[in-house]
Write a structure and sequence with these properties.
single chain, N-acetylmuramoyl-L-alanine amidase activity, N-acetylmuramoyl-L-alanine amidase, binds zinc ion, Aminopeptidase, two-stranded antiparallel ribbon, six-stranded mixed beta sheet, N-acetylmuramoyl_amidase_3, 8 strands, MurNAc-LAA_cat, alpha/beta, globular
């Protein structure tokens, strides 16, 4: 019994040490990735071509909460992102650059709007796309920017994780992780690497106020651009 119990204790101790070692490893990896991302050379963006898809537009307002309209915020963040990327030598195009949509009359109008965006992305000649959205749910407590990807292309997960790392403090306390989603039409249909970013929850009053703030939008744009530069600096993004 005693031997068993000592062994049991030893095994538990070893198991604990094992878990602790894994946890330290994960933290260390995250720490290195964060500092690499924060010190990334933005010149990595030079010559890269990116297409930005500001979600919704025209007759499709997207989510509306706290006096804010998703289609306006997505276009504004997208514009700031374009400026940051272009200032570092990237070539940027948009699926829409005004308050417009591609809805068709009758059934399937929304689907056709999305398919037109897919077509624009595919024919843009860009190597990567970013779709920009805002989240909305029941319950005002939920917050945090989150990046979605489709695993059909191996490059999408590391891209989404880099992007999520860039957005880890947006807003402070954001614990969300990059998430795979097989249901998002644009992620399903486009054949170049890309992600969809839910920049934050319009249904959370504090986050809504941030999303409406041009300074916060600028910070989001800069973090997304940093994450892109980091992604391009990794072998997998080359
Ligand atoms: Zn949306």
């Amino acid at each position: 019994m005693r031997v068993m119990s000592i062994r049991g204790k030893l095994l538990r101790k070893l198991a604990f040490l094992g878990i602790a070692a894994v946890a330290v490893n994960v933290l260390a990896l995250e720490f290195f990735a964060v500092s690499e991302l924060d010190q990334v050379d933005m010149a990595r963006l030079n010559g890269r071509s990116i297409v930005i898809d500001p979600g919704h537009g025209g007759i499709d307002s997207g989510a509306e909460h706290h006096g804010l309209t998703e289609k306006d915020i997505t276009l504004s963040v997208a514009g700031k992102l374009r400026n940051v990327l272009e200032s570092h030598g990237a070539k940027v195009s948009f699926t829409r650059d005004g308050d417009t949509d591609y809805y068709t009359k009758g059934k399937g109008g929304k689907r056709n709007d999305l398919l037109r965006r897919v077509e624009i992305i595919e024919t843009s000649g860009a190597e990567l796309f970013i779709s920009v959205h805002c989240n909305a749910v029941k319950g005002a407590q939920w917050f945090g920017s989150q990046v979605f990807y489709n695993p059909k292309d191996d490059r999408n997960k590391p891209l989404a994780e880099a992007m999520q790392l860039g957005l880890r403090e947006y807003p402070p306390g954001n614990k969300r992780q990059a998430k795979q989603d097989l249901q998002i039409l644009i992620l399903n249909s486009v054949n170049i690497p890309g992600v969809l970013i839910e920049t934050g929850y319009l249904t959370n009053p504090r986050e809504a106020a941030l999303l409406a703030d041009p300074d916060y939008q600028q910070q989001l744009a800069e973090q997304i651009a940093k994450a892109l530069a980091y992604h391009f600096s990794q072998a997998v993004g080359r």
